[in-house]
Every structure is written in C-alpha cells, then in structure tokens.
Design a protein that fits this description.
Chain lengths: ~400, ~400
C-alpha cells in the first residue's frame, strides 16, 4: 500500500530484459512441421539441382539440327521413339517436365508447336540447341547455401527443401513459458489466461503450463520456482496493494530487478530472476497486461526464440485526427481507430479498458521524451489484425 | 500431348471459382482455442461492465467531502476501516482496483497521495466525488454489441470475452481440405505436400488428409470422390502430357469447368466439380503450384472460411529496379527481391524455380492487360515473410 515512489524508464527496463535473453538450443523436426520455425543452422544444397540435364517443359525431345528451317507450311517430320530414348537423328521422344533428358537429345519443343500422328511427329518451328532443357546444376550447385541460419521458414521454403530431399531440419527450440495467472481481484473474471496464451503462441513461444486462480504468495512462489520452463509470466497482483502478492513471491524466492515502470498503462510491471530464470510480473488489468506483454514479454520471447525484437504487427502510417497528450518521461500506449485514412485515439478507461479496446484497430506508442502529438501529425499505428493493408 | 489451344483468362477463372465458395456452418469452441478463428455471429455484452460501481485504482475509498481542503502541510486525517466498509464520515477503507466500491464511499485516493500509520490515514490532496471510481456500466451496457460476426479473433478479443464471462464462442467451421499429391514426374521429389499443408493452414483451412505419391488416374479419382472434405486440391499431373492423369480423373468422375489458364507460371491449372465439391488441379512444378495456390485455392479457402478474398501478405510499395516484360492477356507472377528500397525481379527458371525463389522477398502480380513495367515504376510487392515492415 505504498505506490511507486520511483519508476524505472522503459528504456532501462528493456536494457535489463535484453540481457536475460537466452541462446536457444536446436532441435531436429520434420520439414512439414516447420512452418514459422527459426532455422538453427544454414542449409546447403545436398546435390546439384537439377541433378542431371532434364526437361524444363512438356514436349518432344529432339536433336535441334533436325528442326532446322521448319515452318508452318514446311514442318520437319520426325519418327516417334520411346521416352527413354536414345534420340537418334530423325527421331523425337515425348517427354514431360522434370524427366531426365534422353541420350542424344539436345532440345525440347513444346507439344503446342508440333503435331503427332501414328508414329510421325511434325515440328512447325525450329528448335535451338538447349531449348526447353534445364542443365544439370543450372539452378544450384551442391554445397551452395540455400537458407541462412535465423530464417523464419515460409511455405515456399518447406516446399523447396522437400524437393531437394531434405526431410528434417534443425530449428531453434521454442521458449517454454509458464503462465501464472493470479485470481482476479474483486468482481473481475480471468481475462489474462486466454489473452496471454494466444500472444505467446503468436510470438513463437510454447505455453507449457497455465496455473490459474492463484491468490496467495506461497502458491505463486511455488510455480515461479518449478522446473520445466524458460520464462515465467505472472499476470496480476503486481501492484503495491495489500493483496499484491506477486512481487512479494518474487522477492521471497529470487531477486527483484525492477518494479514500477514509467509506462502507461502497465506501470506496475516488475521483473527479476527466480532460480536464475527470468520472471516478468504483468499487471492484472487486462489492457495493462496486454501492453506490458507487448513491450516486455513478447520481446524477450521473440529474442530468445531467435527472432527480431520488434513488434510483429503490421504498421500503418496515418495522420492523427485528434490531439494526444502524454506525460514526459512516460511511454504511453494509446488505442487507435483508423477511419477514412486518419488515426483517432480511443477513449479507454483506467481499468477494464480491454473491452473498450475492442473498437481499436491498433496501438500507438508515445515515446518517453514526447509530450504527445498535435492534430495532423503523421503517426505510426501498429495494427492488431492481420488483414488490414496500407 | 496436345498443349492448351485456348487459355481461360484469370479473371474468368476467378469468377467461376467464386461461385463455388460455400457458406460455412458454425461450431462452438472454447474461447482460449479461438485465436484467429472467424466469429459466426455477433457477440453482445452479457451484463453491464463493470457490473457495479467499483474501484478503478488501488487506494483508499473515502467520502470526498472528508478530504476538502487537504494539502501537503494540512492533511485530512481519517480513521482506517475494513475493506468491505461501510465507509462512514471520517473513515477510509483500503481497496484495490476491480473491487466493488464499499457502501458510503464516493471517491478513491491512490496510495501515493496518502500516508497510513496504525489506524490513521492522512490524505494530502482533496478527492473529487467519483474520482478513482468506475461507475456501473460505464464501459458497456448489457446487450451492447462487442464484436461483429466475421471478426477474426485477436488475442485482445479472447481476453475481453473471457473477462466478461464468455467462455465459448460460435465460430465458422474451417474449410476441410484434402491434398492429393501426385507422384513427382521423372527425377523430382515431392515438394508440394509440405508446401500446400502450410499454405492451407495459413489461410485458415484444415488439412484432413494428405494422399501422396499417387500416379494413376483411378487412384486420384478415388481420392477426389471420397467423402470428408469440402475441397480437393490435386497437385501435379495437371498438364496435357501422356502421364497427366489428374484432368482425366476429374473428367471421369465429375465435370471439368476450366483447364488451362492465361497465368504464368501456373498455366496448366484446372478446376471443376467432383460429386458437387470443388476440385482444383494445381501444377506439379512447385513454384507453379505455389502461384496457382495463391491466386485460386487460397482465395477459395479464405472466402469459404468467412475471410476476405485478398492475399494475406503484407504489401510493400517500391520502385522497380529493372524492367519487367509480360505477355498481354496473361497474368504473370514475378519473384522479387527488395534491396535498398527498390524491387528487383529475380531470374527464375521455367521449372524447378522454387529453389531460386528462396532468394525472393515477395511476389509481384502483373495484371493481364499490361505488357509489363518500365524501370522506375512504382510497384506493389506482396511479401513472403511476416516480419518485414514498410
């Protein structure tokens, strides 16, 4: 019941937090399970691609010299032979893209420019040597780097790796996060469990446990100290009121590094170490919890999973419709609505603001040195949805 | 072995495809499993929020009139009482944010502006009536619409709904997709299974089966006709070569609507109905398969899951570094690299281009009526990664 006499600057809290990021170990998983995972090591081409001269298109494999001078009214006439060849002078073998070039052939003419009947094939255009052929190693030499370590694997990556015969990849382990959700105070209900579960998953973390409904110091301390997680997020009971037992639990079994931050909302955030593992104390009010997660916890999870520190949201630049006032020295998160290309700050109550924030399209961060923004200023809004396009 | 004499315009193929989108049924799921799912019906507030007058901050609940004239050197001195009240004149009750306002109290002063010792509390500033109090229904009235039908649920939504006591939500069923992956031709390996699995998941679809390695018409036809899916994607064997059995399978058990599209790469794409379910025949070359998925299959999955038709990628506008030539009448997908704020087309071979596309940051779509872009043109690149910010 003492409030926060001093609040730590957000920049200082981030500096402490960044020193807590750990270097994740690697694990090997199947390629088809690896979408969105982060590569632990570079991947090189295991073989030439293509591994041999092969057809780049569907058509007839021929010797180019046989088609010399062919035209619409004067086709070159060849004899059909089997797809495996050999393609001797005067012969043409049907072939489909991806098949090895039959011996003797040096060009492929697409079916569109030919006409086949019985065992005769007419070519209506001349073929140049090498036409329609993909040469061995034309795309990749064995040993060439395909993907660098740190790559967040995309659908196309999974396809390309599989196509090269790579079925398993070494990726960074996902940060294992335990959520300790304090029982809501007073007449509230738990909003933070579902909120944090989906945020941790978004940032590539793995929620290993949700311990919800805890209200006393010993129970919270026990879940902070339990093994099996890399990071503990405690939501709720983070303030300085009589039942704010989370900071007491941290102090009892570990070291409090920071408690009370110049951040609005989210000022009661704390952080420290328990059994040498990072613990972040997030405020119980769901909007403040969201903000503190976004600025602190999400960053640590992303960094410790081998990702970048920045917010994962799309950014939209827009003109500010109203005025935003903010205390100098304090980082403020404002809920914003986009309407007719302009960004409007939403009025959100001090507590219980998450329901009011349902109408927001994104958030705006006012940096600590600023006292806000004037109407008409160009601001950057971080968008909550995935579909909105600038 | 006939090639495509006529190719259908991409716009016409999309018109046919859009008529195949179905209205998904609703299913009820737990809120904490609902991130990214699409609401099937609007959600209204089940009760007032807050449901009663309550504390908006941690502090002492008082009668505002008792603090009149209080100052740093002349504090108002009150007597401590229990948190449940009643707060009679001259009394102050400790309270934490979210608790119901005790009877008698009409304001809350934060702990920072008070000092408590033994059972006395000193207030150093006057409190206005209503200060620090969240009034019943201040944020929401029971019955007010919280979220509209069609909303893609965000982490904050899950928190807000849970906080209002809503534990289950009606969402649209995910489109059930069967992947029928034809055995690669010639010396290729299957790239399309892992590629399509991750793309379908990205677009909110549910892969119910991956039938891989099929090479004959009857086997492919059998998986087209099997129950349990809403959409069949067949990858490979879509062309007009001798072993291109996918179009034959579709024609045998259903109706082919379109085969051969003015799209590059991806021109051998087909589509039709089997047992009244949509079937899309995607090319076997992995890059062509990716392109045909993005323009056709992904759109149908998104539409039939209640999402928008547009590409889900972030878009970046940039100046074109080179020149892009494209055939008039044909939609072309070009792989693009972003370097120093400019967009460069990547050289990608006709087949096996997915490995070359690993170096691409995104793709550019050249619309059918254009013959390309001149150097320096402003173009829109759809980005493959999730982290890149304009």
């Amino acid at each position: 019941m003492r409030g926060f006499a001093d609040r730590v600057a957000v920049a200082d809290a981030l500096r402490w937090l960044d020193t807590q990021a750990w270097r994740p170990e690697a694990e090997e998983i199947a390629v088809d399970q690896a979408a969105g995972r982060v590569l632990a090591a570079p991947i090189s081409a295991p073989e030439d691609m293509p591994p041999a001269d092969c057809a780049a298109i569907d058509g007839f494999a021929v010797q180019a010299q046989d088609s010399l001078g062919a035209g619409d009214y004067d086709p070159a006439v060849l004899t059909l032979t089997g797809a495996d060849g050999p393609v001797l002078p005067g012969r043409a073998a049907p072939i489909v893209a991806g098949m090895e070039l039959p011996p003797g052939a040096d060009a492929i003419l697409p079916f569109e420019w030919t006409q086949a009947q019985d065992n005769r094939v007419e070519l209506f255009v001349p073929a140049a040597e090498g036409e329609g052929v993909a040469r061995r190693a034309q795309q990749l030499r064995a040993g060439a780097t395909l993907l660098d370590s740190g790559r967040e694997l995309r659908p196309g990556d999974l396809g390309a790796l599989s196509g090269l015969g790579i079925d398993r990849v070494a990726v960074l382990r996902r940060p294992r996060v335990r959520l300790v959700v304090a029982a809501p105070k007073g007449i509230g209900r738990d909003a933070n469990g579902p909120l944090l579960q989906s945020l941790v998953a978004r940032d590539g973390g793995l929620v290993v446990e949700v311990a919800a409904g805890l209200a006393d110091q010993a129970a919270i301390a026990e879940r902070m100290a339990a093994p099996g997680a890399d990071l503990i997020l405690v939501a709720g009971r983070s303030g300085t009121g009589s039942d704010d037992v989370a900071p007491l639990a941290l102090a009892a079994i570990g070291q409090t590094a920071i408690h009370g931050i110049a951040l609005q909302p989210g000022g009661s955030t704390g952080m420290g170490l328990a059994r040498n593992l990072p613990v972040i104390l997030l405020p119980g009010d769901p909007l403040a919890c969201l903000v503190a997660y976004e600025i602190f916890a999400g960053r640590l999870i992303r960094l410790s999973g081998g990702r970048g520190p920045d917010f994962p949201h799309r950014v939209c630049e827009a003109e500010l419709a109203g005025k935003i006032a903010s205390a100098v020295g304090c980082v403020e998160f404002r809920q914003m609505r986009l309407a007719r290309g302009r960004a409007e700050p939403l009025a959100v109550p001090e507590t219980g603001g998450l329901a009011a924030a349902l109408g927001a399209d994104g958030f705006l961060v006012v940096p600590a040195p600023l006292e806000g923004y004037a109407p008409g200023a160009r601001v950057r809004v971080h968008l909550y949805d995935r579909g909105w396009q600038p």
